[in-house]
Amino acid sequence: MIKFEHTLFALPFAFLGAIMAANGLPTWRQLIWITAAMVGARSAAMTFNRIADREIDAQNPRTANRELPTGRLSVGFAWAFLYISIGIFLLASYSLNWITFALSPVALFFVLGYSYAKRFTAFAHLLLGAALAISPSAAWIAVRGDLTEVPILLSLFVLMWTAGFDVLYACQDLDFDRRFGLRSIPARFGIKQALWIARLFHFQAFIVLFVLYLMTGLGWLALAGVIAVGALMIYQHTLVKANDLSRMNAAFFTTNAFVSVILLFTFGAATFFELP
Q1: Can you give the residue range of the structural domain that contains 87?
Q2: Global pTM?
Q3: How far apart are CA 23 and CA 25, in angstroms?
Q4: Contacting residues for 236 by C-beta, under 8 A, at least 6 apart
Q5: Model confidence over 105-161: pLDDT tens digits?
Q6: How many domains would you assign to the chain?
Q7: What is the DSSP string of 102-161?
Q8: What is the CATH number of the domain that holds 48?
Q9: Which residues pair with residue 244 across a beta bridge?
């Protein structure tokens, strides 16, 4: 029910936000509680999404084999797991500093509220992006207790990058979404236009990332990360075509997992070692 590979989308950005905030390695205590907060928030988000969508998932051939629709896990178990995950997140937020704890309900609103967004707006992809975009800014606040333009730019990159790949993923459910009145960019505009919107989101993400590089002046390794991420996003769009969605898993899971890890190691190492 909780896909580990999904965690790779957001966790490296939290670590990167923490490293950039500390201008090196944060304390072990901070890293442990940031990790716990991310695991709790991500587990809560995915569990609540499965609970909220269980009846929809049961009717969608792509998702009908999930744990709740098939009965492999009970709804009662899912609710209990959700409460435990929220508890872990709140404990971790409290253990970091008072600002993270005070803002924790805001984070929960985004990560849980996204599950209902597609019932109301075709731009739910941006709300998912906002939910994941919290991670680097939240980690920055956890380390420094403030917020500057650097984590905001990193969060804006995550928002647009996530929205882009979520539009691609939603292309698989176009017919189902239209039939059941669910809202998405592919369902509203069709696959061909949706692919162009996804490209626009990713182009915006690349511009934001380049501005972040210029602002931080982190040197050649960070620039290599910017170039690598740009190349990966271009490659992702070569895998998905309006008349051929067969390589969607490669475009969605494999490619996206690399983006966050590449930025963690390039921007993170450039920050830690102060490379020219």
Answers
A1: 4-273
A2: 0.92
A3: 7
A4: 165, 168, 202, 251, 255, 256
A5: 999 999 999 999 999 999 999 999 999 999 999 999 999 999 999 999 999 999 999
A6: 1
A7: HHHHHHHHHHHHHHHHTTT-TTHHHHHHHHHHHHHHHHHHHHHSS--HHHHHHHHHHHHH
A8: 1.10.357.140
A9: 241
